[in-house]
Amino acid sequence: MDAVIASQSVLTLQIQADLFSYLCRSIISQQLSTKVAAVISERFFLIFQGKKHLANQILEKQDEALRAVGLSNAKTQYIKNLASFYLEHKKAWSALHTLQDVEIVAFLTNIKGVGRWTVEMLLMFAMGRENVFPDDDLGIQQAMIRLYKIEVDSKKELKIKMNQIASLWSPYRTYACLHLWKWKDA
Q1: End-to-end alpha carbon distance in the chain
Q2: Which of 136, 130, 143, 125 has the alpha carbon at shortest distance from 185?
Q3: In terms of domains, do 87 and 56 share one?
Q4: Residues spanned by the domain of 100
C-alpha cells in the first residue's frame, strides 16, 4: 500500500450540503454505467423547479413522469421511499452530520432501496468521513486481491482478510480506498 500511495497524488475528500440529492443520484446510479447514470440524473433533476422542496416535488410527481426520464419502476419507488422517509424524519436528517458512521448506516438503511454500500458511499463522497471501509465494494475487493495476493475459498473469508488488512489503515481507511480505486483503474 505504501508504494501505491507514493505513486499517486494527494487525494482530498469533499463535503456536500445536500445529502438528499446525493442519495437520489446514488439510487439513480445503482447498476448503471457512470455515463448513463449522469444522463438520467440530469433528466431527473430537470423536471423539478430547482432543489428547493425536492422531496415534496418528487412525491407530487406521477410515477410515469419519473419513469419517462429513464428510471425503472423499482428506482421510481426507491426515490419516492427516500422522499417520504426524508419528510418523516426531517429533524433527524438535519442532525446526520453529528452522528457516528454506524448510526448513519443504521438510520438510512431503513429506507427501502438504500443499502449499506450506498450509505458508505454517502459517508465517503458526500460527508467526507475519513475512516470508511466498504468491504462489499467489488472494486476494493478486486484491488485488494490483486495487491495483497489474497487467496481464499469464500466471500466470508475474503471479507475477514480484507478487514484485517484494512484495520491497519484506520483512522484513514477512506483515503486507502480512494488510492485502491485509483490504482485499480490505472
Answers
A1: 15
A2: 143
A3: yes
A4: 19-125
Euclidean distance between CA atoms 13 and 88, whole angstroms: 30
Same domain, residue pair 108 and 150: no
d(CA 186, CA 183): 5
Q: Is 160 helix (H, G, I), strand (E, B) or coil?
A: helix
Tens-digit pLDDT profile for residues 123-170: 999 999 999 999 999 999 999 999 999 999 999 999 999 999 999 999
Q: What is the pLDDT of residues 83-132, one digit of tens each?
A: 999 999 999 999 999 999 999 999 999 999 999 999 999 999 999 999 99
How big is the chain, counted in residues? 186
Are both 47 and 27 inside the same structural domain?
A: yes
> In the Cβ-directed half-sphere of 182, how many Cα atoms lie within 13 Å?
17
Amino acid sitting at position 39: V
Tally of domains within the chain: 2
Judge whether 92 lies within some domain: yes
Report residue 25 as a C-alpha cell: 443520484
